[in-house]
Amino acid sequence: MPTLFDAYQIGALSLPNRFVMAPMTRRRAADGKVPTELARLHYAQRASAGLIITESIEVDPFSGLKGPTRPGLFTDAQQQGWQAVTEAVHDKGGRIFAQLSHMGRGAHSSQLEAGGRVVGPSSIAAAGNIYTVNGPVPFETPVKLDIGEIAVVVGQYAEAARRAKAAGFDGVELHGANGYLIDQFLRDASNQRSDTYGGSAEKRAQFLLDIFEAVSTHWPASSIGVRVSPTNNFQGMSDSDPVSNFETIAALLSPLGLAYLHVVEPAVQPDGLPYVAIAIRESFDGPLILAGKYDQASAESALLEGKADLIAFGEKFLANPDLPERFRRGAQLTPPDKATFYTDGAAGYTDYPALAD
Ligand SMILES: Cc1cc2nc3c(=O)[nH]c(=O)nc-3n(C[C@H](O)[C@H](O)[C@H](O)COP(=O)(O)O)c2cc1C
């Protein structure tokens, strides 16, 4: 029976344990969206994870927040910054995938680089507010991407994937979760298209499949993971039938031989939300990662019950750089300090203590 401490194989990559460090945006990149020396240290400190997945990395030069914030992977300087990160993680014996992302309608015009636009699969604004420098304001109505513009975005993912390889990553994760652009295409409340990219679950998945194919020119399928969040309503997301939608998506991905499917779904769902991961597990023949408020007991149960092959931990890894060792020893966990999730500098980033040897 598998435990968190058992090895696992993803393609050519041997993981010494089943702990995944979940992708976590920390908004600490330098000007030019370049990862810093602190990012190098932050990830190297967490190299005992079976697999690290980076914070979401922008593929679109015009999208994303201005100034020191989310990192990108579309310039040489960014690539060099990431290379320093991957080398540091490898030096510590770790493995690291780059999470590639595009904000789509989750961006705000006040925060775009010159030439940037708020775009989406359809001209439908996300429900709720976005937090800007001027405080919370309603999400904007995105410009609907036309077929030619979709091809450009697909090309941006491919270019970031090429750079990820050059920067020494072990693979890439396509961020299809949490209301980012791929997720906006996958779910029907944000995608009301009637062309090749909308109208049915299969068609809504076409954008993801196009990206997967384009990224496959630089990586074997077994080095490309996909993250989804079928019922997460972050950034105003929803879907009329998440079970059947994501069952279909999982079945479409299954024959591609991808590295893994990474599903954000807590072990205990909030009231009224369906359990979609079980249906996904049945439709998807490949490695499955589950993420969402897992602790040691619920993670071990999910592995034992065959619900997942690996478990991703977010906040616990953020606050405990040596999380596998803490679980192994039954040591106390440091609680995460939410006040420093998105602030600048080392505080709450590289100063969480490891256990004394
Ligand atoms: C500070 C913070 C930043 C996050 N940023 C991302 C991100 O960039 N990409 C992503 O897919 N999920 C992101 N997440 C979600 C986590 O990957 C994870 O799914 C979530 O925290 C639930 O796992 P947990 O309960 O173990 O923390 C973030 C979570 C936190 C706490």
Query: Which parts are unreliable, with pLDDT below 50 for 5 consecutive residues or more?
Result: none
CATH architecture level-2 label: Alpha-Beta Barrel
The average pLDDT value, as a whole number, equals 96
- Work out the radius of gyration: 19 Å
Return the CATH topology. TIM Barrel
> Class by helix and strand content?
alpha/beta
Number of E-type strands? 14
- Based on the structure, what is the oligomeric state of the protein chains? single chain
Structure write-up:
The strands form four sheets. Strands 3-4-5-10-11-12-13-14 form an eight-stranded parallel barrel, surrounded by four helices. Strands 1-2 form a two-stranded antiparallel ribbon. The model has no long low-confidence stretch (mean pLDDT 96). Helix 1 runs parallel beside helix 2 (76-91) and helix 7 (242-253) packs parallel to helix 8. It starts with 7 loop residues before the first strand and ends in a 28-residue tail after the last helix. Helix 1 (37-45) links the parallel strand 3 (19-21) and strand 4 (51-58). It has a single domain, classed as Aldolase class I (TIM Barrel, Alpha-Beta Barrel), CATH 3.20.20. It has helices spanning 37-45, 76-91, 147-166, 181-186, 201-204, 206-215, 242-253, 277-283, 296-304, 315-319, 323-329, and strands spanning 8-10, 13-15, 19-21, 51-58, 96-101, 119-120, 129-132, 135-138, 143-144, 171-176, 224-228, 260-264, 288-291, 310-313. The protein is of the alpha/beta class and 357 residues long. It is built from eleven helices and 14 strands. It is globular and about 55 Å long. It is 29% helix and 17% strand. The chain binds flavin mononucleotide. Flavin mononucleotide binds next to strand 4 and helix 10.
